[in-house]
Amino acid sequence: MNAITNLIGGRKVAPQGQERYCAVNPSRLDDVIADYAFSSADEVESAVAAAQTAFSSWKARGAIGRADILARAGAILIARTAELGALMTREMGKPLPEAMGEVGYAGKVLQFYAAEAQRAAGETLHSGRPNVHYYTLREPLGAVGLITPWNFPFSIACWKLGPALMTGNTVVWKPAPHHPLCSQAVIDALLEAGLPEGVVNLVHGGAEVGAAIVRHKALPAISFTGSTPVGQAIYREVSARLGRAQCEMGGKNALYVHEAADLDKAVTIATEGAFRSAGQKCTATSRVLVDRAIAGRFEEAFAARVAGLTVGDPMTEGTFLGPVVDDRQFAKVLGHITAGIAAGERLVVGGDKAPMENGYYVAPTLFADVAPDAPLAQQEIFGPVVAVIPVDGLEAALAVVNGTDYGLSSTIMTRDLEAAHRFARGAESGVVGVNLPTAGVEMHAPFQGWKGSGLGQPEQGLKIIDFYTHWRSVAMQFA
């Protein structure tokens, strides 16, 4: 069994807390990845102290020097795509091609932020006073806390670590416990690239470790990705102590099939958005809205496509849908399906466990004629379950799209340019697609949910640089 270690002040040490966690391969339940202890409160304190100690020298290295390390770490991840993709598949069940794609993307994210270090970090301004030279600088905040989820072990970690480190901050990082070896692989890439001691401190743990990081007054900023209730609680906690919080949270994302859509393409896009990664993406398609005039034809074609998806071992070539991540998620998703059936929702495809002997497999599931206010259409399920909702035209579709507490991602399928623009302007979501899946981001674009899907600065792109820095204005008079 693999050794699980924290990294604190440059030293790899086994966590010393009382609580334990057993990480299991969700596609082979007899494959125990690691049975390990979570960290203690004392270890969080040590990690914060190490990050504070390392801050001044890391800041003094300068942006270009910091960027060199990020660029090398990105190249290391890319070179290990096959190895680390297989590790991710084993730890959290993502089909191998998707896992390999994520590792490569994570490496490119680090390289993107390394390249951004070449960009000017301030401005020269005109002054209204004579003989005054006026300029601005970005300055790092200090030691910051990062809390990352289990569904993207490499990419979300890197799109937090990249901008935090490039701008000169040091880090205390708590990843989700499901994939400890993936988290350690990110750390190993940074260390191999030359990261100095104490700049990134990894502490394995659960909710108690996360809470200790969130409430720590020596961490002026916390970046979190996870569920909406937890994110909202973190935002309140950090704001109350006058810190900064950036929270990316849940979604109930809608794909609207307009009457002018290419029907076959709409089926393909809906399937990709809803069932890749077993629906375990905050941007996954959870609702499919269809103009009533084409609803029958779409449902028939969509149901046939979903029924034909290959469910199985995520390491096997050709597998479309692997397991959900753990027993808790398995029970949650099946509970939503059972409740939908009990409520009289019309089940079209799936509705139970997939017929696999070993693993947390849920059959891809499709409900039709779901009311917009039904639990299946309102609650985040985070699994391979889709509610099809008939609507009467674009304005009715927008009302349904916007009729949840979430506002992360939405898409319209149409060949009508006017309808596309009206949808893009009217959808209350931070990400809008036209003829594209609800799931899918690009590293140079801001990523932010609205309403219950996001709080604080957008993630990714250059907007996040504002989160990890303060501005300094300098006025210098010459006699």
* Integer tally of domains: 2
Taking Cα atoms only, what radius of gyration do you get, to the nearest Å?
23 Å
Strand percentage: 15-25%
Reading off the top of the CATH hierarchy, the class of the largest domain is best stated as Alpha Beta
Compute the average pLDDT.
Answer: 96
What best-fitting shape do the alpha-carbon axes yield? Answer: globular
Protein structure class: alpha/beta
Assign a percent range to the helix content.
25-40%
Describe the structure.
The protein has 479 residues and is an alpha/beta fold. It folds into two domains: 6-249 and 453-477, Aldehyde Dehydrogenase, Chain A, domain 1, CATH 3.40.605; 253-434, 3-Layer(aba) Sandwich (Aldehyde Dehydrogenase, Chain A, domain 2). It is built from 14 helices and 22 strands. The strands form six sheets. The chain has a seven-stranded mixed sheet with strand order 14-15-16-13-12-18-19, with helices on both faces. Helix 4 packs parallel to helix 5 (155-166). The longest helix is centred in the N-terminal third of the chain and has 21 residues, at 96-116. The radius of gyration is 23 Å and the shape is globular. It starts with 5 loop residues before the first strand and ends with a strand. GO terms for molecular function: oxidoreductase activity, acting on the aldehyde or oxo group of donors, NAD or NADP as acceptor.
